[in-house]
Amino acid sequence: MIVLAAAFVAAVLACAGTVAFVKLSPDGGRDAGRVAGTSAPPSQRPDPSQGEERSSPEPRPTVTVTEPGTVIPEEPDWSDQSAADAEFLALIAADGITAPDDWALEAGRATCGQDYASAREYLTDGGLYDYHVQTFLDDWEATHGGYC
What we know:
The chain is 47% helix and 0% strand. It is mainly α.
């Protein structure tokens, strides 16, 4: 008898829940009877206050996936290397650095890309004053663009 009463109460509650769900639908439509678990959105009903009927849903954004590529730097134009060397030598001379041309070019290539401490050690061991080291490195970078 208790089982029958429980089954009856469960059936009444299920019917009441269905009726309440249909009656309390937020847009006042009858979409509450749709099959649960579908991914389709409820039908778009025109809002009478807008006066314009929508014919299709809003477009979804397009996502483009690009594969990462390998960037290959351009080779420097070595024919212009002598012009860069001449400009470098002119710059260090204008900055008050005196050194033999071939040593200055060799030192520029040797210290290119090195950390400051290593470059400083190389340049001061070669006879450059400590206060000229950063200027020397900056002039090389300005004329050669980092190409060693």
